[in-house]
């Protein structure tokens, strides 16, 4: 059995991953507050890797690309409690709590380690997952507003993230693609993140890079994989997911076609 998601409310769920690992390149449409109950989570971006374990609390920002790989650990499945902080709820909250918002570069994610206030509110959700009926909206609202209030107490600057409701605008294609080519997303999503329609994205991409998006993405991902295996002495099986490939055998085929030798033969070259 792979992934299970148990919703007690549209904004509150318990996620379980029972396979060896689960990998996803995600673009969250809402901010997500996540408490890791068991297992391990690896977050990858370029040559940066971050590991988190049971008890850690993460806030994923909306409209930010993140590669997440979840693993079971110590005989326990990967399990997490997730709270959605959606635009409608945040708009309502900040209509009652006026703030001055300045433009900031949103982080892909934030970690609050095992902060006792956040742990308390998220831990209090666990008994509700035993309900045989949905959690009433009145109770869910209290819980989510409490979490928002705690986040603001821990970090007063969090308002500049949570109260910013702007959608992505047209940005530099070169800068964005160089920073995010390892994410395995549809061309529609790449276009949305750069503030373009699919047609405009493909046209601007061809003009900028003199090739198609798929050819360019494959080349960049193979170059990154080559660097990890040769310079950082990593195993191909540990690399292919991180650089944007979904299948190890396809990665090996593409690698050999590009460089003339298999990724396992790279030592000494």
Task: List the keywords.
269 residues, 38% helix, 23% strand, Jelly Rolls, alpha+beta, globular, Arc Repressor Mutant, subunit A, 10 strands
Descriptive notes:
This protein has 10 helices and 10 strands. Helix 2 runs antiparallel to helix 3, helix 6 (187-193) packs across helix 7 and helix 8 (213-231) packs across helix 10 (248-259). It folds into 2 domains: 3-162, Sandwich (Jelly Rolls), CATH 2.60.120.810; 173-265, Homeodomain-like (Arc Repressor Mutant, subunit A, Orthogonal Bundle). The chain is globular, with a radius of gyration of 21 Å. It has 269 residues and is α+β, with helices and mostly antiparallel strands. It has helices at 87-96, 116-123, 137-154, 159-162, 173-180, 187-193, 198-209, 213-231, 236-239, 248-259; strands at residues 3-9, 12-17, 22-27, 31-38, 40-45, 48-53, 57-60, 65-71, 78-85, 109-111. Strand 5 (40-45) and strand 6 form a beta hairpin. It has a 6-stranded antiparallel beta sheet with strand order 1-2-9-4-7-10. Strands 3-8-5-6 form a 4-stranded antiparallel beta sheet, with no helix packed on it. The mean pLDDT is 91.
- Reading the helices and strands in chain order gives EEEEEEEEEHEHHHHHHHHH
Poorly predicted tracts of residues = none
Task: Count structural domains.
Answer: 2
Radius of gyration: 21 Å
Fraction of residues in helices? 25-40%
Assembly form of the protein? single chain
CATH class of the largest domain: Mainly Beta
Q: How does the overall form come out from the CA principal axes?
A: globular
Q: Name the CATH architecture of the largest domain.
A: Sandwich
Q: If strands are numbered along the chain, what order do they take across the biggest sheet? A: 1-2-9-4-7-10
| CATH structural fold name of the largest domain | Jelly Rolls
């Amino acid at each position: 059995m792979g992934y299970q998601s148990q919703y007690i409310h549209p904004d509150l769920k318990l996620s379980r991953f029972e396979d060896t690992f689960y990998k996803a390149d995600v673009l969250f449409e809402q901010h997500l507050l996540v408490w890791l109950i068991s297992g391990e989570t690896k977050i990858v971006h370029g040559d940066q890797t971050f590991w988190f374990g049971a008890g850690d609390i993460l806030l994923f920002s909306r409209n930010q690309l993140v590669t997440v790989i979840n693993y079971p650990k110590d005989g326990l499945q990967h399990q997490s409690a997730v709270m959605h902080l959606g635009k409608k709820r945040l708009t309502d909250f900040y209509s009652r709590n006026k703030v001055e918002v300045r433009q900031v570069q949103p982080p892909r994610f934030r970690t609050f380690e095992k902060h006792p206030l956040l742990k308390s509110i998220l831990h209090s959700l666990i008994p509700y997952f035993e309900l045989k009926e949905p959690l009433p909206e009145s109770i869910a609202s209290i819980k989510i507003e409490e979490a928002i209030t705690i986040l603001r107490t821990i970090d007063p600057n969090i308002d500049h993230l949570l109260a910013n409701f702007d959608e992505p605008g047209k940005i530099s294609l070169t800068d964005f693609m160089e920073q995010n080519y390892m994410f395995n997303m549809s061309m529609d999503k790449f276009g949305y993140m750069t503030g373009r329609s699919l047609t405009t994205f493909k046209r601007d991409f061809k003009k900028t890079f003199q090739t198609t998006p798929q050819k360019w993405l494959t080349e960049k991902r193979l170059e990154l994989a080559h660097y990890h295996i040769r310079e950082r002495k990593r195993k191909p099986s540990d690399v292919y997911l991180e650089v944007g490939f979904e299948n190890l055998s396809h990665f090996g085929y593409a690698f050999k076609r590009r460089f003339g030798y298999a990724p396992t033969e790279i030592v000494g070259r």
